[in-house]
Amino acid sequence: MPGTSRERIREWLASPEIDAEFLGEDLKFTLVLLDQYEPGVDRILAERAELGELSWLGGPALGPLEQWPRNVDGEPLAHIATIHLSEAQALLESDDFTEADWPEPGARLPESGYLEVFHHLGTYGNPEDEDTAGWLVRYVPFPGEEFPPLISAPDDLDLPHEVCQPVLLGAGVSLPRSVDFVDADEARFAAAERVQEELYATWMAWRRGVEAVTDPVLPTSHVYGHSDAGTGYAHDILHQVRPLTGSEDAYVLVLSVESWTHFDGWFGDAGNFEVWMRASDLRSGQFDQAWCMIRTDH
Fold first, then answer.
1. Pfam families annotated for this entry (predicted)?
2. Residue 101: inside a domain, yes or no?
3. Pick from 5, 134, 231, 253: most CB atoms within 10 A?
4. pLDDT tens, residue by residue, 261-298
């Protein structure tokens, strides 16, 4: 399912065999995390040796880091992701996009540097977690001279298992998930479920570098787009902890990380890890206002 044309996706949704035209009202651009590399830090170092840079899940953090982030109880946070933002910006500005409104206008991450995310795996992002220091979302600038150093986690960080997975970013399209239509009529829910299966299958095939995959199909980690666990519960929490600043503000899913593959056992029982921000905070670079959730509610 290519992400280069909004109109092509809408035509596909409106086709008789798909019959889900209503989903075209909320198409979003997304960046899919493609995990085709072998795991381990060696691939990151090899890319740097060729003056390139990757994004990665788990693994080391970036310096400078005065001290490894910890929650209020002194427990170290797990490093979840480092996203190379120059690669993300290059995909947003791709010449493959020929429609003026695609990717859709909206708040975006900085054009260069890195997004880095840490999280305490026992913190689920409920309203009472506000003052626990249970996560850290930060922007790391890249001066363009030397790559930031890689910082290993402290010895007292207890993880279900080690993860270090380099990833490439790929431009794609995101559609509302079927869980957002559980209260709709049966036909709309079935259509949304059908499209979701197609979406997940396409992303999985892309990840594996194959033409098609068979069941079961799984979610894929991504930047921007829609929540795999549904927006309703997330927005309920966000309205309590990060109320919108006005009618022009909105909630943006900055990062979604699945736990069916590399992070199996990290985020509860098959939970999704999500980073949310208000568009107003994203535009002003207030990453300390990000809200992280482990979604086991779906």
1. DUF1963
2. yes
3. 134
4. 999 999 988 889 999 999 999 999 999 999 999 999 86
Q: Is the pLDDT of residue 38 over 80?
A: yes
Please count the structural domains in the chain: 1
Output the pTM of the full model.
0.96
- Amino acid symbol at 69: P
Does 1 reside within a domain?
no
Cα 53 from Cα 43, distance rounded (Å): 10
* Residue 276 forms part of a structural domain: yes
Alpha carbon separation from 60 to 24, 79, 150, 236 (Å, rounded): 39, 7, 6, 33
CA neighbor of 284 nearest in space, from 239, 249, 258: 249
3-class SS of residue 191: helix
Over 90: is that where the pLDDT of 143 sits?
no
Encoded tokens for 238? 């966000």
What average pLDDT does this structure show over 88-101? 93
What CATH code is carried by the domain that includes residue 100?
2.30.320.10
Alpha-carbon distance values, 133 to 122, 130, 230 (Å): 12, 7, 25
